[in-house]
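Notes from the 1:1 (GR / supervisor)

We went over the backlog. Supervisor wanted to see one worked example end to end before approving the batch request, so GR pasted a single chain during the call. The sequence is below; no edits were made to it. Supervisor asked that the structure be written out right there so they could see what the output format looks like.
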Amino acid sequence: MSGEYNSSAQRTSPWMTAGRVIFTLALIGCIAFIFSNSMKIASVSTVSSSRVLTLLQAALRRLGHPALAQRLTDHIVRKLAHFCEYMLEGFLLMLCMRVYTRQYIWHISVPMLGGVLTALTDETIQIFSPGRSSQVTDVWLDSAGVLAGILTALVLMALCRLLFNHRNKE
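Structure output shown during the call:
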């Protein structure tokens, strides 16, 4: 019996396999998006930020906040973009960690390290993009975004677990 292969104990569920594929591809896509933005030359990056600024200002005005729309600047939009990109990356890193290991809560440092390494690489890419610069403050902002994404994922996973356990008890 000890020499037999127990296939049911060794098999990964199709849902777990699907989760691994989906979350891994989403993470790769997110990092590719981040790096592609860093490779843009300054004038192209400025045009992109200006478009987003215009859309956000219009949305704020439409929601009845013209003073807030007036205060919104290109600088704020760029910093928000950094934070949001990396929040998504942190979220996806944590989901990837969850689908690859049951002990994900003990491995929070792995997604955090991955996010910081992405941020460092991102800022290094910007050094070589014409008209762009690299800023240590962006690495800190990006890291804060990764941490926010990790924490968001942990909260959502905990809520899902509570919901799942509650439904199983009924």
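Supervisor's comment: Confidence is low (pLDDT under 50) at residues 1-8.
Batch request approved.
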